[in-house]
């Protein structure tokens, strides 16, 4: 299978702040979005993109890639809501690594399950 280039993670880095602004602007508040906040959202989004691409490249079939991507997307609410709720309490970006760890865990489980179900 053709590998996915890692530079595509920049797209995730660009889209993640937009997604967070659309979804969590009412929950977090408007003063949360500072230039530092945007930079951190970009870095977290790019990190999530790198995690997803890493596990997609480990998949042996197209079906396994789809299952890995589905697990990654389905864990977004599970990872995003606690992170957004903890950010004001913990004072900033302390909870951001929890988001990356949750993404990595679910992408890893999705790739294991996908490679098991869609064996060649």
Description of the structure:
The mean pLDDT is 78. The longest helix has 23 residues. By secondary structure, this protein is an all-alpha fold. It has one domain. The radius of gyration is 15 Å and the shape is elongated. Helix 1 crosses helix 2 and helix 4 runs antiparallel to helix 5. It is built from 5 helices and no strands.
Quick gist of this model?
The protein has 120 residues and is mainly alpha-helical.
The rough form would be described as elongated
Main sheet, how many strands, which sense, barrel? none
User: What portion of residues belong to β-strands?
Assistant: under 5%
Q: Could you tell me the mean pLDDT? A: 78
Number of helical elements: 5
Tell me the number of strands.
0
Furnish the topology, listing elements before pairings.
Elements: H1 9-28, H2 35-57, H3 62-74, H4 76-90, H5 96-117
Keywords:
120 residues, mainly alpha, 5 helices, 78% helix
């Amino acid at each position: 299978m053709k590998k996915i280039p890692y530079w595509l993670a920049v797209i995730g880095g660009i889209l993640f702040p937009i997604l967070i602004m659309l979804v969590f602007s009412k929950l977090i508040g408007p003063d949360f979005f500072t230039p530092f906040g945007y930079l951190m959202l970009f870095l977290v989004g790019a990190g999530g993109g790198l995690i997803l691409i890493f596990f997609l490249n480990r998949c042996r079939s197209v079906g396994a890639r789809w299952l890995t991507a589905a697990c990654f997307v389905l864990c977004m609410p599970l990872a995003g809501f606690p992170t957004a709720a903890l950010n004001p309490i913990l004072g900033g970006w302390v909870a951001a690594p929890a988001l990356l760890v949750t993404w990595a865990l679910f992408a890893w489980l999705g790739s294991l399950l996908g490679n098991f179900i869609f064996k060649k």
